[in-house]
Amino acid sequence: VFLSLQLFGTIVWILVASTQVPLPLLQGWVMFVAVTAWFLSIVFLCVFLFGYANRIAVNWNQVDFLFHGATFVFYFGAFLLQAATTSLHHFPRKFNSTAQERILADHEYNISIAASIFAFATAVCYGCSTALALRRWRL
């Protein structure tokens, strides 16, 4: 599951960054969530790989559940914002202009659809990780 989290999160990051970010408030949050979740997941992995988990007296099953649960909520929100950005494809960028320039060009629209799909897939993976962490914590 960890590799799919990192892979899908990286793809979301790349896809959103490859657009012109027409709605910085919405897509800025998506980028923040993608980059922060990716970085914190790497830190979380390194804590276990380098044996720091044995040196720090914390209930790691509870920390694992809280981390993945919070990240699931943030990623699901990021998916909704990315999907909302994608749904605005047909609206004009400037309402007072005579030229009907769309918020998202056709190429950016396709990229935004892919980013929405991968954001959803990442949220599902974090949801599965949350369920598995809850199971480990409660057993």
Automatic annotation (TrEMBL):
Chain ranges passing through the membrane: 29-53, 65-91, 111-134
InterPro entries referenced in this protein's UniProt entry, alphabetically: MAL (IPR013295), Marvel (IPR008253), MARVEL-CKLF_proteins (IPR050578)
Gene Ontology cellular component terms for the protein in this record: membrane
The organism of origin for this protein: Colius striatus
Biological processes, Gene Ontology terms: myelination
UniProt xrefs under Pfam families: MARVEL
Domain of life according to the entry: Eukaryota
Keyword Methyltransferase: no
Entry membrane topology: Multi-pass membrane protein
Identification of the protein by name: Protein MAL2
Primary site of residence: membrane
Database matches in PANTHER family: MARVEL-CONTAINING POTENTIAL LIPID RAFT-ASSOCIATED PROTEIN, PROTEIN MAL2
UniProt entry keywords in alphabetical sequence: Membrane, Transmembrane, Transmembrane helix
GO MF term set: structural constituent of myelin sheath
Domain MARVEL, chain residue ranges per copy: 1-138
Subcellular location: Membrane
Keyword NADP: no
